[in-house]
Structure to design on (389 residues):
């Protein structure tokens, strides 16, 4: 629930921004929860409820606007008839503008043009929340209309555009602010992210939910208040959302001491990931820094808002800094698990062990397992360090 809530709440904080590597970024996170079939991913439904009231409010507003639009269309048609008969000497009536399709939760079962349209009509913001990862995977792998590149661009708020030939229309998203919350089995994950070289891998915060072999107590009285509790939390977050919507910009910042610690910690983390896992984890280390900064931003906004002192400038407290780093420390291990799975590492380790038993050198084993000798250091670590066996 908590990991899912990070993803949902990251999409409920409009106009929050912080300066990171010379660029203004927002708190939006990409979250992926992995578990077996019936493995307990249902807790994510409660995380979704945090944004439900905002979504319902937007949908209700959209319905009212559409109803008014249809009335205006009928009036416009009548005026046009009068004009065409020559009974009106003025200018021809201007057709009314169709209202935007307002929503918070954008369907994952979508085309590229659909994603662009919904982002454009919602000020570039939205949350894709999907409890079955293969739903998005099926949409993304379409020969025409897949939107994997859109997700990669949106993570860094990069400009994205799409030309719709049907209407001769250019759809532009100048600064997408998109959050993702996905869950699936490992097999479904591989459809969406087939390898670690796929750019989506390093953009996600992964959490592997371990299988519980005991049958849970489905009649636990402690859970009877969950539905009401999280529905109320949805109203609370709606108030926060409305409050932030009124602001032009709410700035988050770290102290000079926190900035120095941040750089030092992630320098060590990057070196460690490259040394202990693989050189390709360098990108993951870089993006873990972005993710950590966004979590700090998220915690800071919630803390200041709850205390009633949210202003145009908000400093991160040491406790929020440390808590974000603790979360990254834990979820970094889950990213390594996903890396090994996508990289076929368990099978490769077994193959390396078998080849080592035949007396082959580390370079020869690397050449067979990876297709070249550049990973012989990795092979050496697998076979000589107990941690990797």
């Amino acid at each position: 629930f908590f990991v899912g809530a990070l993803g949902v709440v990251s999409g409920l904080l409009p106009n929050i921004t912080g300066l990171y590597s010379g660029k203004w970024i927002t708190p939006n996170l990409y979250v992926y929860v992995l578990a077996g079939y019936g493995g307990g991913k249902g807790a994510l439904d409660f995380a979704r409820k945090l944004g439900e009231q905002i979504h319902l409010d937007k949908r209700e507003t959209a319905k009212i606007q559409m109803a008014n639009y249809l009335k205006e269309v009928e009036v416009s048609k009548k005026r046009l008839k009068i004009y065409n008969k020559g009974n009106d000497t003025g200018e021809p009536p201007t057709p009314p503008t169709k209202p935007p399709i307002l929503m918070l939760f954008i369907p994952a079962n979508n085309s590229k043009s659909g994603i662009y349209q919904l982002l454009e009509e919602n000020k570039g913001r939205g949350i894709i929340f999907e409890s079955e990862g293969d739903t998005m995977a099926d949409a993304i792998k379409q020969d025409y209309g897949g939107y994997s590149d859109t997700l990669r661009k949106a993570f860094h708020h990069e400009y994205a555009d799409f030309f719709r030939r049907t209407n001769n229309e250019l759809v532009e998203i100048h600064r997408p602010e998109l959050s993702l919350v996905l869950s699936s089995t490992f097999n479904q994950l591989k459809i969406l992210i087939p390898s670690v070289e796929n750019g989506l891998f390093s953009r996600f915060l992964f959490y592997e939910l371990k299988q519980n072999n005991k049958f849970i107590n489905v009649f636990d009285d402690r859970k009877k208040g969950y539905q009401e509790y999280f529905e109320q939390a949805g109203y609370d977050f709606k108030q926060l959302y409305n409050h932030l919507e009124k602001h032009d910009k709410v700035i988050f910042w770290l102290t000079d001491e926190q900035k120095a610690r941040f750089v030092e910690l992630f320098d060590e983390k990057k070196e460690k990931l490259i040394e202990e896992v693989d050189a390709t984890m360098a990108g993951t280390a870089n993006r873990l820094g972005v993710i950590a900064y966004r979590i700090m931003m998220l915690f800071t906004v919630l803390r200041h808002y709850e205390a009633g002192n949210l202003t145009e400038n908000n400093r991160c407290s040491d406790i929020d800094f440390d808590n974000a780093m603790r979360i990254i420390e834990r979820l970094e291990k889950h990213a390594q698990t996903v890396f090994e799975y996508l990289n076929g590492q368990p099978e490769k380790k077994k193959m390396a062990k078998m080849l080592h038993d035949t007396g082959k050198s580390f370079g020869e084993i690397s050449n067979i397992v990876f297709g070249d000798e550049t990973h012989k250091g990795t092979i050496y670590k697998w076979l000589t360090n107990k941690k990797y066996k």
About this structure: The two ends are 33 Å apart (CA to CA). Residues 44 and 208 are 13 Å apart (CA to CA). The mean pLDDT is 87.
